[in-house]
Amino acid sequence: MTRCSWAKGMEKYHDTEWGVPCSDDQKLFEFIILEGAQAGLSWKTILNKREGYREAFDGFDAEKIAHYDNNKLKKLMNNPKIIRNRKKLESAVNNARVFLKVQKEFGSFSRYMWGFVGGRPIVNNFRTMDEVPTVSDEAVSFSHDMKKKGFIFFGPVICYAYMQAVGMVNNHLIPCERHSTIQAGQ
Fold first, then answer.
1. How far apart are CA 96 and CA 109, in angstroms?
2. Over the stretch 57-99, which tens digit does the pLDDT of each residue have?
3. Active site residue: 6, 17, 43, 90, which one?
4. DSSP 8-state secondary structure symbol assigned to residue 185
5. What are the backbone angles phi and psi of residue 73, rounded to the nearest 5°?
6. Torsion angle of alpha carbons 53, 55, 56, 60, nearest 10°?
7. How many C-beta atoms lie closer than 10 Å to residue 64's C-beta?
8. Residue 13: active-site member
9. Choosing from 6, 13, 17, 90, which is the catalytic residue?
10. Residue burial 41-61, b: 16+ Cβ < 10 Å; e: rest
């Protein structure tokens, strides 16, 4: 299979998840947590700790995470299976609370999120990684709105990475087989 050049060592993730349009709120919340944890680190590092995050963060259950207290944060700070950065851990709890508010306001986080791209993925036609931007106007708008709602650790660059991961943007390169299969809905 011809893949995007960044996928080395992350083939399964590339082939099955990245860029696939998602409307499952729990999965969308998982990626909010993971993208926030990734800030300043490689995505491969986060993927290698993903199972540790699932275990430590109650399967990414926003309701449970929203109720984490200082004792739980102390336990997380001692968990070698995750990134032990206090600000990132606090942001996960904060973002769980805000996520639940957005769900209540819009009926689902998915409905809110997809509104920033008109309800369907933006399909880019890049041939090389040099052409792929780190941010877009939609990511700036989405990020700023999320910040107004109270989300933290979710600036425009992280937001754009999130949009790519959850399929709001198809940035698989043209030579990559996933570009056309995702576009075809597979």
1. 11
2. 999 999 999 999 999 999 999 999 999 999 999 999 999 999 9
3. 43
4. T
5. -65, -40
6. 70
7. 13
8. yes
9. 13
10. eebeebbebeeebbebbeebe
- pTM surpassing 0.90? yes
CA–CA–CA angle 35, 39, 45 (5° rounding)? 75
Q: Please state the CATH superfamily assignment of the domain spanning residues 5-183 in this structure.
A: Hypothetical protein; domain 2 (1.10.340.30)
C-alpha distance across the termini of the chain, in Å: 15
Give the whole-angstrom CA distance, residue 186 versus residue 179.
10
Is 43 an annotated catalytic residue?
yes
Q: Which of 183, 184, 162, 180 is nearest to 18 (CA)?
A: 162
53 is catalytic: no
Tokens encoding 165: 């991961």
Domain ranges of the chain: 5-183
Cβ atoms of 38 and 46 within 8 Å: the answer is yes
- Sign for the CA dihedral angle at 59, 17, 50, 164 comes to negative
pLDDT digits (tens, 9 = 90+) for 95-124: 999 999 999 999 999 999 999 999 999 999
Encoded tokens for 104: 């209540």
Q: Among 35, 53, 138, 162, which one carries the catalytic annotation?
A: 35
